[in-house]
Amino acid sequence: MDTLTQNIQTIPLNHYIILCAIIFAIGVTGVLIRRNAIVIFMSVELMLNAVNLLLTVFSAYRGDATGQVFVFFIMALAAAEVAVGLSIIVMIYRNTNSLDINVLNRLKH
Amino acid sequence: MVNNYIWLIPVLPLIGFLINGVGRNSLSKGLIGFVGSAVVFASFCISVAAFLQVSKTGGFTVDLFDWIKVGSLRVPFSFLVDQLSSIMLLIITGVGFLIHVYSTGYMHDDAGFGKFFSYLNLFVFFMLLLVMGSNYVVMFIGWEGVGLCSYLLIGFWYSNPSYADAAKKAFVMNRIGDLGFLIGIFVIFNAFGSVAYLDVFHKAESLHSGNSTVLLITILLFIGATGKSAQIPLFTWLPDAMAGPTPVSALIHAATMVTAGVYMIARSNILFTLAPITMHIIAVIGLMTLVLAALIAITQTDIKKVLAYSTVSQLGYMFLGLGVGAYTGAFFHVLTHAFFKALLFLGAGSVIHAVSGEQDMRNMGGLRGKLPVTFATMLIGTIAIAGIPPFAGFFSKDEILAHVYAHNPVLWVIGVLGAMLTSFYMFRMMFLTFWGKFRGTHEQEHHLHESPSSITIPLIVLAILSVVGGFINVPEIMGGGHWLQNFLAPVFKASTALQRGETIETSSSTEWALMGVSVVGAIIALIWAYGKYISKGQLPVADTEERPAFTSLSYNKFYIDEIYDNLIRKPLDALSVFFYKIVDLLGIDGFVNGLGKGSMEASKDLRLLQSGNVGFYIFMMVIGIIAVLVYNIFRF
């Protein structure tokens, strides 16, 4: 555990933060510009994992295991969320024969 | 020496079960029958060796391995082979072997031949486990196992829905009893800190008679016994168990299953002796069962039903014996009953085989000449069960009745009346089946034939045992040595010591008189049956005709099934319907659906505010998050 922490600390903290910010930004962009529901879903996961990585890094730098424990909870939660999200997508596809989110405006009418 | 091979006794039938179970479709019928019978015969041989060892050096325990070890609970998987269990082993494997041999002939044309033998082997395995276990937990495995096997075998012809129902009924009835037994085991562990017989009985010896914990334990164990051994109120499954093939009836009724309750009480005799209240309950329940079942048996027309109710009635005798503390007598009756009841069932099977599956005695008659071996052996069985000397049933029934008389003469009078009924319905069955003219169809008459030797040889062996089986416990006044009683004395030692002084010794002249009365009673009943069914040639009336009130009551089994149906099943059904229709459909479903409908209604107008463009939503969300971030950063 200790050697692992030291290994992580050989790379400056800023590098990690920048990497996470980039991944997060990719996720946000993906969500904003894509129209395929599955790709949007993947982008959301990307954002989630960017945050996870950041939590782990801070946890390692500060020597506090709480952050890593938190990551486990997020992972468990994400697994549940994926199950729900994917089933919603399946239902969308069955109802509209398309994964384009712009088609989903029928509630309005 | 033989101790090292004791584990083979139950394991051999288990191997037979595995071979027959796996190869039920691929092996030939001859091989399946041979394997099934041979493993039981091998067990029988080892049981004989174990019996000889026990009679030389006394009982011994064989530890196999530690099965459960949690905290203070330690349950070793070990076998106790003593006087009681060694005799049970001989009965189970010996009579069981004969039934296996018989089945090779009886089931020969059945499509499920291999399945049948694998079930039979499994049944014997669990029964051996039940008897050999050295603690209550191992006994309970066997106890549950025979329950399962009886379910499988009673429902063997499961494509007939009423047979499948009978199997379910047997299973459910047994489960009720099993629950009592299980709770009893918990209380035993709680009270004595152990479930091993020797520990429990050793600790129990220091308790006082009438101890309330022991009372609770014995009541619970007795509830367990009423399920397995078919006593009031749980006896109704046994007559329905006739749905199974006839060898199964013989196995369940004679060698295994129903004797389990008697064995369990005889095994726990010290606990029961310490609880006089339970003993009274057992005696009264036994007596009620024996009279009720006998009254039902006298009007039944199905040959197997008569025998089934006679089993319930004979079990009543055993429990009556247990209830008055005549453990040896009750166990003696288990032994002799195993011989003559197996004989009678197998004989009935032979009759049914001969008349092409007919079971109604109204369509039989005059089979004496066509089935000479079956007739002769069944006659021996009937005389034995009716209690006419010197056949086996006389000695065991008399042993019980003598103790009952010493205990309470009123119970004895009812017991003797029950014995008269036994004699009456058994000879009624014989007369209707074998005397008179054949009343079936011409086709059946044309097919009448004596059964093959695989069926008749077990009958002959059992008939010999039914004749001589009683001589192992001839009372002193008849010049006998009470061999069984002396042999079993170590098992019942503590109880005998407690009972000393309680029972009044009957003088030998009284004992002779008691025997005389019961024998004369049995013979009067025999003559009465002869007069009714042969001299006057009466027949039970057809189902469509009117019966006198009492006959009708008896023919319909005192409506006990209907009473249970109305008292227990219907209220339960109504309760289920209430929970389903009101609580589930209206209450729970209504609440959940109401929530959904409520939010639909509430949002009906609000939804028009939305554009429905998901991309725009996400964009606005990101803008919002950025705005919150910016606010948070520049606020300070």
Explain this structure.
- The complex is a heterodimer of chains A (109) and B (636).
- By secondary structure, chain A is mainly α.
- Chain A has a single domain (2-99), classed as Helix Hairpins, CATH 1.10.287.3510.
- Chain A has 4 helices and no strands.
- In chain A, helix 3 (37-62) runs antiparallel to helix 4 (66-96).
- Chain A is elongated, with a radius of gyration of 18 Å.
- The N and C termini of chain A lie far apart (58 Å).
- Chain B has 636 residues and is mainly α.
- Chain B has 2 domains: 135-555, no CATH class; 561-634, no CATH class.
- Chain B is built from 26 helices and 2 strands.
- Chain B has a two-stranded antiparallel ribbon.
- In chain B, a hairpin with a 2-residue loop joins strand 1 and strand 2.
- Chain B starts with 7 loop residues before the first helix and ends with a helix.
- The A-B interface holds A 28, 31-32, 35, 40, 101-102, 104-108 and B 607-608, 610-615, 618-619, 622.
Secondary-structure map:
The complex is a heterodimer of chains A (109) and B (636).
Chain A: H1 2-9, H2 13-33, H3 37-62, H4 66-96
Helix pairs in contact in A: 2-3, 3-4
Chain B: H1 8-22, H2 29-57, E1 60-70, E2 73-81, H3 83-106, H4 113-132, H5 136-154, H6 161-192, H7 197-204, H8 212-228, H9 237-240, H10 246-255, H11 259-267, H12 269-273, H13 276-297, H14 303-323, H15 327-354, H16 372-386, H17 392-407, H18 409-434, H19 442-447, H20 453-468, H21 483-488, H22 493-499, H23 508-535, H24 549-555, H25 560-603, H26 614-634
Antiparallel strand pairs in B: 1-2
Helix pairs in contact in B: 1-2, 1-4, 2-3, 2-4, 3-4, 3-10, 3-15, 3-20, 4-5, 5-6, 6-8, 8-11, 8-13, 10-15, 11-14, 11-15, 13-14, 13-18, 14-15, 14-17, 14-18, 15-16, 15-17, 15-20, 16-18, 16-20, 17-18, 17-23, 18-23
